[in-house]
Queue: 4 jobs
Job 1
Amino acid sequence: MTAAGSFGGPQRTCVGCRRVAPSEALVRLTVREGRVTLAEPRPVGRGAWLCPQPECFEQAVRRRALDRALRARVLIDDDLCRRFTGVCEQRKAVM
Ligand SMILES: [Zn+2]
């Protein structure tokens, strides 16, 4: 693990595994019109943060952490899972 704050950016907590990481290392989820959107880190509205790995997404879903973080009833469907997995793959390709 690198020391906290080594990126110099804001720190966020993954709602899945509770790990604290720089916001640019996490995936931001927001709700728009009742649908979850996967957004790039931008300070717009209420967001939930997840590590770019499916295990964290599953944990967050199981604990209903997304509902709590986003203050909304979040619809988890296959499409959302696929999109999240897609973002994970993109991140891996970059790293
Ligand atoms: Zn995590």
Job 2
Amino acid sequence: MQTSKNTILITGGATGIGFGLAEQFLKMDNTVIICSRRETRLKEAQQKLPGLNIRVCDVTRIADRMSLVNWITEAFPNLNILINNAGIQKNFDLTGLIDIAAVEEECDTNFIAPVHLTNLLTGHLRNQPQSAIVNITSGLAFTPLAFMPVYCATKAALHSFSLSLRHQLSGTSVKVFEIAPPIVDTELDGGARDERGQRDRGISPEEFATLAIAALKENVYEAAIGFAANLRLKREAMFGQLNPEHRGS
Ligand SMILES: NC(=O)c1ccc[n+]([C@@H]2O[C@H](COP(=O)([O-])OP(=O)(O)OC[C@H]3O[C@@H](n4cnc5c(N)ncnc54)[C@H](OP(=O)(O)O)[C@@H]3O)[C@@H](O)[C@H]2O)c1
């Protein structure tokens, strides 16, 4: 994929991985639009990177997704790359009753929104000479961490969807990429890693963005970065290592 002179929408681009990608893509002479729920974080991002275009959007809301697509295709008719990055991560204890509204929110953010945004934008992207859809999944798409069961399932679903999408769009100008990050030091876990005493903070968003963009440039359609490559390769064989207290059944 060409990595300059694109017009790129990154969902959830005000922080973490999305911001890391936005920063590097801007430096590489791309037009970048980011969207997320918190206007303050969008404005902070824009102050750090004055070339950035911002839009408030809650991707769990159908109406927000539709108005985002209407706005962006009107304001940025050369839009040729969609990066489905926005995501949330929750822990659920399946031995008791769980908050099903929280499950729905996680599914809507991590899976339904990418599916809908992809579908809404595919017609537009097909009319661009070169275009791409990039889905940010996770190493946990291949081997789940048991205490965040829904998160891992949404990422496995997005991985599966990416395979089908790539197949269906293979005769078009739209390339379909999946990037599976390892642990990246972001706000995703809401402090849960600290509570668990997890020492591994992972790689920085900047380092991740460099590796991900290198993979996109080389047309690696399914790029598992760092430790995520191990999870992708060995899958269920890694389950015990990721979930040491698991005794099997
Ligand atoms: N960090 C890791 O270790 C890791 C590993 C594997 C995969 N990933 C994936 O990488 C992606 C980015 O996560 P991150 O680690 O960079 O975490 P992050 O810093 O928390 O970024 C997530 C972004 O998504 C936005 N977002 C959340 N819900 C949204 C909604 N309903 N509508 C619009 N935007 C929303 C958030 O902004 P608002 O809250 O303001 O909306 C935030 O900017 C996620 O898909 C995550 O699953 C991360």
Job 3
Amino acid sequence: MTSFMPPAERIWWKVPVGREEIVWILIALTWCLIMFFMMPYWHIYGKQNLSNEAYQTTPAKYGAKVQEGIDQHKVGEEAGVPIVHPPAGSDVYMLGRLWQWWPILELEKDKTYRLHLSSMDWQHGFSVQPININMQVVPGYEMVLTVTPDQAGEYGVVCNEYCGIGHHTMVGKIYVKE
Ligand SMILES: [Cu+2]
């Protein structure tokens, strides 16, 4: 019998299911359930990427917010890149563009911040080194990560989404102070 032909027995769903088929259905169902419960479990215990919020924006609007943060909280400059020390617990802004993470952020240890990210031009990947934080950064969307740095030091930000000839030079910095 092929699927083009009607089943021999009209009320086919009353025909008992073969043992082998039942076993396969149970194996598949068990695996589905394991995968299903692994999602929330791994989200909490798997040290995965952070949960984030996302909002629509435009490069112009987002760029203005970043500039505002720089104007209000700039504390220095490093090779032409402003260093911004926002108040503990506040919203902090960083942007990605060809080929720069802008500005450098200076955060305080054990304080919680809302870190906003967006791109001015193209898709970039926000990757914090040496810890495992990776986010897609795309123009038109503003991502907000709630972060609490728990170790002082200097963190590197690299772009992990190939974005053109200067991709490998696209490095930024986050300082976490005691
Ligand atoms: Cu990039």
Job 4
Amino acid sequence: METVMISACLVGDKVRYDGKGKYNPLVKEILQKYNLLPLCPEVLGGLSIPRDPSEIVKEKVITKNGKDVTKEYNKGAFLCLNPISFKHVRKAILQDRSPACGVNKIHNGKFDDGLITGEGILTKKLKENNIECYTIEEFYDKFIKEDKKDDQTLNELNELVK
Ligand code: SF4
């Protein structure tokens, strides 16, 4: 089975800034067709659980209390590449809106819950290394839902020729 990297919080690991996970029930279906490699770049970069929330402000990552944690984010993204390359991973499922894992949207850097178009530090690094990046919904629609339709059509054809 192909191995796909996934943001660790999406499988329920309690690695988020607030000490909680963000389990997504689509994980169960994805696991039937793929091995998952859960990684949290923020924790790998040396940040604690819990920690102050951070947002991307221009080229830097800054905590709500004004601390520059860009170095930790870059380190975490870099460290993710090792297991990814070891396991021959070509695709990643990432938690949107995160300053590390955001795929299509990130917070606007004003800590007011506003969102802008953009991607996280890890996502950028993965794309530079030719890893395809998806939100979990995008991945499900592209690789699970379509397969399910094909399986259903095949089953219907099998029934017809019986
Ligand atoms: S860095 Fe990524 S994996 Fe870690 S808590 Fe944030 S979104 Fe989840």
